[in-house]
């Protein structure tokens, strides 16, 4: 998957998302996202902006304390 530049890992038991991006030299950097962060996903002319609330909507994880 040489063309893969980013991928997103969403935890299934808690609202934590990790965004991994490829930088020069084929190294990967990881960014931990919290509820205030927004993720922009672009594919051709389609662009989506999501929050953790969007990703975890209807899972029950956002109301667990």
Task: Give a structural overview.
It is a single chain. This protein has one domain. The chain has one helix at residues 52-55, and strands at 6-10, 17-23, 27-33, 38-43, 46-51. With 65 residues, the chain is mainly β. The strands form two sheets. Strands 1-2-3 form a three-stranded antiparallel sheet, with no helix packed on it. Strands 4-5 form a two-stranded antiparallel ribbon.
Write down the domain tally.
1
Through-space gap between termini: 39 Å
Radius of gyration: 13 Å
Sheet with the most strands: spatial strand order:
1-2-3
Query: How would you characterize the largest beta sheet?
Result: 3 strands, antiparallel
List low-confidence stretches: none
- SSE pattern, N- to C-terminal: EEEEEH
Structural class: mainly beta
Number of distinct beta strands:
5
The coarse overall form would be: globular
Taking all residues together, what is the mean pLDDT?
89
Helix percent band: under 10%
Count of separate DSSP helical elements? 1
Strand content: over 45%
Short recap of the structure:
The chain is mainly beta and 65 residues long. It has one helix and five strands. The protein has one helix spanning 52-55, and strands spanning 6-10, 17-23, 27-33, 38-43, 46-51.
């Amino acid at each position: 998957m040489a063309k893969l530049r980013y991928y997103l890992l969403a935890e299934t038991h808690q609202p934590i998302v990790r965004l991994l991006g490829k930088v020069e030299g084929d190294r990967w950097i990881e960014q931990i996202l919290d509820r205030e962060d927004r993720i922009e996903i672009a594919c051709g002319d389609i662009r989506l902006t999501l929050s953790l609330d969007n990703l975890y909507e209807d899972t029950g994880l956002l109301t667990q304390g």
